[in-house]
Design goal:
80 residues, mainly alpha, single chain, globular
Amino acid sequence: MIERVIAAEGVMMDFWRERAFCPLGDGDLDVDAILRAIRDGGFTGWVVVEQDMLPRPDESVDRAARDQQRNREYLRVRGL
């Protein structure tokens, strides 16, 4: 998905349209490996998680809230 936008020399809006910013665990990024590295490195500070999204006309306006709730559960299950 990201490669397609990059190849087309897309702008930020194209990344949102292609849903490049998905809930934790849904994308290509190995979030668990990143969380392990944070934990193994002894980090004890805050972790800020941001998920940009562009709602589509056919979607509920509650999608952003549901995605964030899901992200928080993803992190809670992993001890954060």
